Amino acid sequence: MTSRQPRARDDMKKRWSIWVREYGSDHDVELMQLDGDPAPVVKGLHAKSITIQKSLFEPGKRRSKIPRYTFVRVVDNSAGE
Q1: CB neighbours (10 Å) of residue 6?
Q2: CA angle 7–78–5, rounded 5-degree value
Q3: Is 24 within a domain?
Q4: What angle do CA 47, 19, 27 make, to 5 degrees?
Q5: 64 vs 33: which has the higher pLDDT
Q6: Cα-atom radius of gyration of the chain, to the nearest Å?
């Protein structure tokens, strides 16, 4: 017979949650859930930055870039099932 019986691993998809903490915040927020590999998404989140202008009277002077997210955590949602 050529019929293939699905393995338990095929039936259960990996589901990931990505939790972040924005700069200046004191709590974590679930940013997204995804089924695929979270590594490229996490790499992109670490690359995000915001520009801060330190001078209110002279815009354009003393700009600095800081990371948008100070904390990025990946949680495996299929582990509890």
Answers
A1: 7
A2: 10
A3: yes
A4: 105
A5: 33
A6: 20
